[in-house]
Every structure is written in structure tokens, then in C-alpha cells.
Amino acid sequence: MSDSPAELSAELRNAMAMAAAAGDKLGAFKAAAAAAAAAAKKDKKQMSESELQQLRLKINSRERKRMHDLNIAMDGLREVMPYAHGPSVRKLSKIATLLLARNYILMLTNSLEEMKRLVSEIYGGHHPAYHPSACGGMGHATPLSGHPVGHPVHHPLLPPTAASLTTTGISAVRAAPPPPPPPPAPPSSNPVSHGLGGGFPHWSGMPCPCSMCQMPTAAHHHLSGSSLPRLTSDSK
DNA sequence: TAGGCCATCTGGTCCT
DNA sequence: AGGACCAGATGGCCTA
């Protein structure tokens, strides 16, 4: 197996390492891109070994950048998760981040529903929030979730309500069976580890990403995975 | 040492 | 045609 992909990629890695060592990676990328652009004008069968290699370097560099951007977005997601941050805490894995985010969204959605229910109970459905005309003509698409009387509402910054989510293709979240609303405990309370795989610390009232704590929300399983349209093509 | 996680390469497919 | 996206393969690093 002398021409195995592993050996070929090792060769390319050496080329990249040499290019990176000679200068900045951007410069190496630009050189590779220029050579690849010239080479791409020809038929691939007519391309020389080095031209093919340059094209491969360009594609590899693009893919690296794409994955790097994805990791940056993942870090941004980690930052807003109710989880212990800090140098002494191990970073959440990607799968754990996604599972925790999902549970967190479900929890927030449920809390919002519960809050709306409580407000309607207290005010008997006569709270001004349920009458958009009382909000200075801002014209809500959906009733606001019971903001306190007298407090200014920054409408553009409000998170979408569960009802509005249904109009954006996320209705499955709302369709989830309501788990018991967790108390609003801050993540600073003592974590409880159940000693399962992954070693996720458990915070009181906070969603856990570990597989043991995934609630059976079969009602919205159709939201996951391959059924989601591509972001770049959902406008069609 | 096995298993988990990750980065990277690679070829294929889809989209603009 | 070129780029974005995806999934499989591979190897490295780390931890229990």
C-alpha cells in the first residue's frame, strides 16, 4: 500500500509544514491558490503532479479554515452555556456542547411557557402585554411574554417566543413534552457527578449533556439530523 | 492499553 | 467552474 491516502497526506503535510515554516500560512495558501487556479484551467488528467498537489493543498486549506470557523462557532456556543467555565475546567466536547445546548433551549422554552401561564393566571388574561395596542404601536407579531408593566421593552432584542419559533421551522421544540421546570439555580452551586462516562458535572436545575440524562423527547425527534435543510439552501 | 476526542486529509455531492 | 458541505479514514494526544 505504498500509495495509500495516509502516506500521500503525510507527504502533503510535509509540504504544508515547509510552506508554513518558510513564511506565514496565508502566503503559502495564496501561492497554492494561484498555482491551483492556473492548474484548474487544464483538465485534471493533464495536470502535472505538482499542480495536482497545489490544488490539493488549496482544497485542504479551505477545509481547515472551514473546520476552524466551525470550532470558533462551537466555542461561542460554549461561552453562553450554563456551564462552569475556566482554565481548570475541561472544555465541553463538541457532542456534549450540542446536547447541552439542546437541553438548555428546551429548558428555556419550558420556562417561558410556564412564565406565560403564571402571568395569565395572575392577571386573568387582562395584562397589557396581551394587548399589543398598549405597547405604543410596536406591532408584535405574537403576544409578548408578559413583560412587567412600566418596563420598556426592547422588541428587536427579545428572543423569539415559542409561538414565533413555530413559524421558523422549529416547532418541534415547542412540541416537546414539558419536563418539570427546573428551579433557576445558578451554575455556581455544587456540581453533582453521577460517575458516568464523560464525567459531566451536574448542576442543580441545569440540563446535562450526558446520554444518561437525555430525556425521551420522542415528540421532536424529527427535528434532528438529516431532516434539517441546508442553511444555504433553505431559501429555495 | 483501550477508548474518547480531535485535527486533518480526501473524494464525493450539492449549490451558486 | 469553483466553493461549500459532508462523511469516512487516519493518526496523534490524553485519560482512566
Any overview of this molecule?
It comes from Staurois parvus. Keywords: Coiled coil, Transcription, Transcription regulation. Pfam families: HLH (PF00010). Residues 176-189 have a biased composition (Pro residues). The chain has 236 residues and is mainly alpha-helical. The chain is 44% helix and 2% strand. The chain has helices at 5-22, 25-40, 49-79, 94-123, 162-165, 171-174, and strands at residues 192-193, 201-202. Strands 1-2 form a two-stranded antiparallel ribbon. The protein is elongated. It starts with a helix and ends in a 34-residue tail after the last strand. The protein binds a DNA duplex (16 and 16 nucleotides) through helix 1 and helix 3.
List strands and helices in order, with pairings.
Layout: H1 5-22, H2 25-40, H3 49-79, H4 94-123, H5 162-165, H6 171-174, E1 192-193, E2 201-202
Antiparallel strand pairs: 1-2
Helix pairs in contact: 2-3
The structure holds a DNA duplex (16 and 16 nucleotides).
Keywords: Coiled coil, Transcription, Transcription regulation
Coiled coil: 38-65
Region (Disordered): 172-198
Give the key terms:
236 residues; mainly alpha; two-stranded antiparallel ribbon; 2% strand; BHLH domain-containing protein; coiled coil; transcription; HLH_DNA-bd_sf
- Residues in helix, %: 40-55%
Question: Which overall shape is indicated by the principal axes computed on the Cα atoms?
Answer: elongated
Instruction: Count up the helices.
Output: 6
Return the structural class. Answer: mainly alpha
Overall residue-averaged pLDDT value: 54
SSE order, one letter for each helix or strand: HHHHHHEE
CA distance, first residue to last residue: 45 Å
Strand order of the largest sheet: 1-2
Contiguous low-pLDDT stretches (5 residues minimum) are 1-42, 131-205, 209-236
Query: Biggest sheet, open or closed, and with what strands and sense?
Result: 2 strands, antiparallel
Compute the CA-based radius of gyration.
25 Å
Task: Count the beta strands.
Answer: 2
